[in-house]
Specification:
- The protein has helices at 47-54, 61-73, 77-86, 121-144, and strands at 2-6, 9-13, 18-20, 27-29, 35-37, 41-42, 105-108, 115-119.
- It is built from 4 helices and 8 strands, in the order E-E-E-E-E-E-H-H-H-E-E-H.
- It is of the alpha+beta class and 153 residues long.
Length: 153
């Protein structure tokens, strides 16, 4: 414990608890170790050692795409490429290629998970909005499709 003099009064301050890293064997403040959870304490390795071990495992863009296709849509890269080839590399709606540096997105039914086609970003976003709001759009067009009734003479 440390004694500190503040305004003529002494105060007792406890140092931060320390812990020894299982990997580098350095004794560091406990705050240098990631938490495991509220009741479970902290990791056995310090944050620097944990980050160092994880760095070599960085995903390539191809690996990230393969993981996303598999986890979210149950598709393989080969299946994605076959769909893209069948669509001639263009969006299934607007028939334009994706913007430079991007890819076609997997359009799927959010209720069933069924994959429909590959879309450009713009069409994919619009299909999502349409699915969520199509009844409201139809009601709006039914009411205002011929113009605002308040503006008719």
């Amino acid at each position: 414990m440390l004694d500190r003099i503040e305004g003529g009064q002494s105060a007792t301050v406890s140092p931060e608890p320390s812990k020894t890293c299982a990997r580098c064997k350095e004794t560091l403040p406990e705050s240098s170790f990631h938490r495991l959870g509220k009741e479970r304490g902290r990791r056995a390795t310090c944050a620097d050692c944990r980050n160092e071990v994880r760095r070599p495992h960085k995903e390539t863009p191809e690996h990230r795409l393969a993981r996303k296709l598999r986890n979210e849509y149950q598709l393989t890269i080969a299946q994605y490429m076959a769909i893209a080839e069948a669509q001639r590399g263009v969006c299934a709606i607007c028939e334009k290629p994706p913007a430079t540096g991007t890819r076609l997105y997997v359009d799927h039914c959010h209720a069933t998970g069924v994959v429909r086609a590959l879309l450009c970003n713009n069409c994919n976003l619009n299909v999502g909005v349409y699915e969520a709001q199509h009844r409201a759009f139809e009601a709006y067009l039914a009411a205002y499709g011929d113009g605002n009734p308040l503006l008719k003479n």
